[in-house]
Amino acid sequence: RMQRKPRPRHKIAFIHLDLGVGGAERLVVDAAMGLKSKGHDVTMYTTKHRADHCFPETVEHLPVEVHGSWIPTEIPFLGGQIFCSILRMIWLAFKLVFFGPKFDVIFCDGISACIPVLKLSNAKVVFYCHHPDLLLTRKSSMLRSLYRLPFNFIERVTTVMSDEILVNSKYTQKVTVKTFNLKTNPQIVYPCISVDKIDSLIQTRSQLNLPNRKMFVSLNRFDPAKNVELAIDAFAKLRKESSEKFLLVVAGGYDVKVQVNIDYHKKLQLQVESQGLSHSTFDRNKKNFDWSTDVVFILNVEEVEKIQLMRSSLALIYTPSNEHFGIVPIEAMTASCPVLAVASGGLLETVTTDGKVGILSQPNSSEFSEAMKKVATRPEDAKSMGTLGRKRALSLFSFEALSDALDA
Questions:
Q1: CB-based contacts of 13: which residues, under 8 Å, 6+ apart?
Q2: pLDDT digits (tens, 9 = 90+) for 346-367
Q3: Cα dihedral across residues 225, 327, 183, 117: positive or negative
Q4: Is residue 78 predicted with pLDDT exceeding 90?
Q5: What is the pTM of this model?
Q6: Cα end-to-end span (Å), the chain
Q7: pLDDT at residue 1 above 50?
Q8: Any alpha helices (H) in 160-194, and if so which ranges?
Q9: What is the spatial distance between Cα 266 and Cα 273, in angstroms, rounded to a whole number?
Q10: For residue 304, which of 369, 251, 241 has the smallest C-alpha distance?
Q11: What pLDDT band is residue 138 in, cutting at 50, 70 and 90?
Q12: 357 in helix, strand or coil?
């Protein structure tokens, strides 16, 4: 019987704007680790990588090349973040193609403007579309719409120049085909969760000394697009209608150098106060932190803390609308935590609408508050959601499934 020949080992580059700690970064790191586990030689290229604000794999297991950090992220007094991001990615692509080693495959995501430069190499260029950026931009004024026109044009032209397009869900697939007028459906490659890592974190103690209170957790980066106000308003409504002193923990990615994170944290604090509730912000330097407030903010939450919060909470409150995928709900499902989320976008296929692993609601405080009340007053149903959620996550969103899909 003939033995199957081993698959050839490829040199693969990943090019990503900022290797921070967001959902897109989690996907890119998992994809890189997945291909590395298949025996491929993987290198990551980025314009920003800080050892104190990144996923540990990019420090311990993956070689990272940083180029273009000297290019500003915005123009003083004018903004221009998208212009600067495109400029940084084009410079990064230029350094990769003309000064880096030869690669067989280049995996790009987020910003497609660098694809024409990447195409100057002999490598196959794969673009992972989290969601068309031109559809995510807030058109708050005529001037802003005009400003976005050339960037939208660049995105439309350069995205289709890639050799292959991948997407993260059926929802994104449908939107991508329509936006870029594609003739064929892009392949769906679901982001993954590392079950072994989450299970390991479950067994690890963090420095959070959680109180013996029934609690809900909201996990998102501190950004207005995540609509955490909805979680606060729903929680306030629940508190007013119940004698139980529930606790809401609002935690997520936070960078002291990113103004939008700072501003949004302040805005949420004011939102809590406007509801007549008390709040505090977790201070890692204090050994005996006061958990007696109604709402606790945890900035730049650590991985082990995130999993501990999920395991200790009645449910995850996930409030973004039209989320193209949403990795946090999958992590919660893996940790056997029920998910309460908005009934839109990719969550319709990850959490589903059958109510078995969580509750999807319209984005208003009344429906979310009612869903919170259900998991708080029906512990058996909540436990069943957690059990079935983990089973679903393991079958569809495993590290092995992502690795196999990318290596196909």
A1: 42, 43, 44, 45, 96, 100, 103, 105, 106, 107, 123
A2: 899 889 889 999 999 999 999 9
A3: positive
A4: no
A5: 0.76
A6: 24
A7: no
A8: 170-180
A9: 11
A10: 251
A11: low
A12: coil
DSSP calls for 256-313:
TT-HHHHHHHHHHHHHHHHTT--EEE--TT-SS----SSEEEEET--HHHHHHHHHHS
Check whether 7 has a pLDDT greater than 70: no
Rounded distance between C-alpha atoms, residue 217 and residue 283, angstroms: 18
Tokens at 40, concatenated: 């491929």
The residue assigned the tokens 């436990």 is 383
The token pair at 84 is 């600067």
Q: For 107-148, give the secondary structure using H, E and C.
A: EEECCCCCHHHHCCCCCEEEEEECCCHHHHCCCCCHHHHHHH
Residues pairing with 113 in the sheet: none
Q: Which amino acid is at 214?
A: K
pLDDT at 8: 67
pLDDT of residue 374: 96
Residues in the chain: 408
Q: Which amino acid is at 206?
A: S
Percent of the residues in the chain that have a pLDDT greater than 90, as a whole number: 68
